[in-house]
Structure formats: structure tokens, C-alpha cells
Amino acid sequence: MKSKLLAVLMCLWVYPSYAQVVPDSTHLSREEFRFADDQRYTLLGATPRRTTQIEPISTVALSAAYGGLFMFLNYHMSNSWWQRSVDFLVIEDGYYARGADKLGHAYTGYIASTVCGDLLMECGFDYTTSTWLGATMGLGYMTYVEYQDGHGANWGFSPSDAIANAVGAGIYVARNLSPFAQNFMPRWSYMPAHVTGELATNGREVTALDDYNATTFWLACNVHNFLPSSLKSYWPDWMMLSVGYGIRNYEVYPILPDGTRSATSLPMKRRFLIGIDYNWVKILPEASPSLGFLNYLRQGLNYVRLPGPTLEFGDDGARFGLLYPFAIVVPF
After folding, report:
1. What are phi and psi of 245, to 5 degrees?
2. Rounded to whole angstroms, how far apart are CA atoms 22 and 39?
3. Pick from 35, 134, 230, 294: most CB atoms within 10 A?
4. Contact 232, 239 (CB under 8 A)
5. Average model confidence (pLDDT) for the chain?
6. Residues 6+ apart with CB under 8 A from 235
7. Which stretches within the chain are classed as H helix?
8. Range list of H helices, 233-289
9. Structural domain for 315, as ranges
10. Overall number of domains in the chain
11. Using a CB cutoff of 8 Å and minimum separation of 24, what contacts does 157-160 make?
């Protein structure tokens, strides 16, 4: 019995890519629903509608999920970042964290818009409406966070943060509607500093969202699509190139001989990177449409940059990392 069940599951996973849900006139065809030369996937596997037709059950369920997530995030931040409320304050911090913070806001705005847009497609909104409304909802949430920051005793409303959020939402719209922009994808990588041999922040408590010593932001490029036909065979279609940016010594205070912490933090250092990246939609086999969520997860791997060969240069000089960000490096 177990062997039969395993055989069925394997057949569903490796089910030929041409055996898809039969297209109809109310939904985009699979050929129409693509990112560059990659098949694109929705949360549950169907393609978006051509015209909006709200599906009540999906809308209620996904609205409840979105509302629950909003309440959870609001509760978490109210008990951490916004514990003390003050009169609304504007504080411009354009150079905070040597610019890594602004890239973080742009990436978060992009992801928030993407999640909202994907949920709207499941609710029956057409592709274009889902794109614009998803960007509006994503940016709306990020703007709400900025407004609350304006009342936070230790923060303040940052105009450059708000602009970065809007840039992220704009990237989402551009990637959805511009075939050229679909060849570029923002990515994020995170690995705790103690795992990679970096100095960890000890000036304050941090999370994965603002641990800039452990975070790198990337822009991946689909090189294969830009090559002339005569050269395409020499470049694997799954291999991308990513350029990245990160910093070191964010909120790192040296420990003095007496065990106390220095009053002055180490100077932050920039790192610029370029490395080989991966298109997981090309690498991993496509699941059957009946297992559409697996395809969505497979597609989701393209939102992060996994360890790979990387050339780094910046304030610490140049070095090559075999599996950046792990400390397997060759300094120049």
C-alpha cells in the first residue's frame, strides 16, 4: 500500500508540464501568465481571470487570513517598537545603516505588494486589477507602519523610508506589467552573524528584519534572456547573476578588558557583491496542476538568494566567497 501511494505522489510531481488545467476564455492561458520565459504560478495553481469576478468563499477566507496577519504584526510591533507613544515626529534618517535600511524597506514593500496581489488573484480579481490593487494594499500597510513609527518614542516618521516603500511597490507593478522588468528580481539573504563568522549586533535587540550585519539585499538578472541566440547555448538558462549590497559592524560595540561595553561603536563598513544565482523555476521539476501550491513554493525560492560563489569588494578590500555568506573566502 505504501509503495502504491508513493508511486501516485511521484506521478503527480513529475506529471508532464503539458498536462495542465484545460484553459478557458475566462482565465489567462499558461502562455500568457509568464515571467520573462518562466511559467508563473498562483497560490493554488490556476491562472488569473481575464475579467474580475469575485469569488465569495475565497475572498472571505483570504480576507480573514490577511486580517489575522495584520493583527498579529500590529500586536508584535506594538509590544516592541511602539511601546511608548509620543506626539507625531518626523525624523529623516536617509543615511541610517549606510543605506541598507532603505533597501530593506524597498524589498519589504515589494514583498508586501506581491503577497497582496497574489491573494487578490485567488479572490477572482483580474491580473491587472490585482497588480494595481495589490501594490496599493502593500504600500498602504507599509505607510501605516511608518505612521506608527512617527508616534514611536524611539523612532519617528522617515520620509526616505516612505519613499523606499513606494519604490518597492513600484518594482512589483513594473515586474508584473513590463516584460523587460521581469528579467530582474529583488532578492534577500539572511544568515545570523555567529554562523558566518561576522560580528553580531550588541548595541540593541534585533530581528531578521533589521539585523543588517546578517542581511544582504540583491538584484538578480536573467542573463540568458539578454544573450544573442548564438550564445544562449553557452549560458545555462537556470544560472543568473546577482548584484548585492550589505554592511558590517552595524551597532557593534567592542567589549573592554573589564567586560564592559565601549561607549563608541565600530565604524560600519560597506560590502558590494556580485555572484552566481539560481532560477529555481528552471532547476526544480514542475508539479502537477493538482499540486499547484508546490509550484507556488518552488517559485517562492526565487525571492531569496541562497549561498553561492560571490565576489565581494568594499571597505574591507576584495575577496571571493565560495558559498557567501559563509566564511569560505579567498582574500585578494
Report:
1. -145, 135
2. 16
3. 134
4. no
5. 87
6. 223, 224, 227
7. 2-13, 56-78, 100-122, 127-150, 159-177, 193-196, 229-232, 280-283, 292-300
8. 280-283
9. 2-331
10. 1
11. 157/88, 157/89, 157/90, 157/91, 158/90, 158/91, 158/92, 158/93, 158/94, 158/96, 159/90, 159/92, 160/92, 160/93, 160/94, 160/102
- Helix H or strand E encompassing 84: none
**pTM as predicted:** 0.88
Q: What does the alpha-carbon distance between residue 316 and residue 272 come to, in Å, rounded to a whole number?
A: 10
Instruction: Give the three-state DSSP class for 256.
Output: coil
Per-residue pLDDT tens digits for 48-72: 999 999 989 888 888 888 888 878 8
Instruction: For helices 100-122 and 127-150, give the axis angle rounded to 10 degrees.
Output: 140
Closest by CA position to 271, among listed 207, 206, 198, 328: 198
SS3 label, residue 240: strand
- pLDDT of 14 reads 34
Cβ count near 9 (within 10 Å): 12
Contact 287, 295 (CB under 8 A): yes
Q: Rounded distance, CA 290 to CA 241, Å?
A: 32
Q: Residue 255 phi/psi, 5° resolution?
A: -90, 125
Residues near 31 by Cβ (< 8 Å), separated by ≥ 6?
none
Block residue for cell numbers 508511486: 7
pLDDT digits (tens, 9 = 90+) for 230-250: 999 999 999 999 999 999 999
Round to whole Å and give the CA distance between 205 and 267: 19
Q: In terms of C-beta density within 10 A (0-12 exposed, 13-18 middle, 19 or more buried), how is residue 238 classed?
A: middle
Helix, strand, or coil (residue 186):
strand
pLDDT in tens, 140-198: 999 988 988 888 777 789 999 999 999 999 999 999 999 999 999 999 999 998 888 88
φ, ψ of residue 8 to 5 degrees: the values are: -65, -45
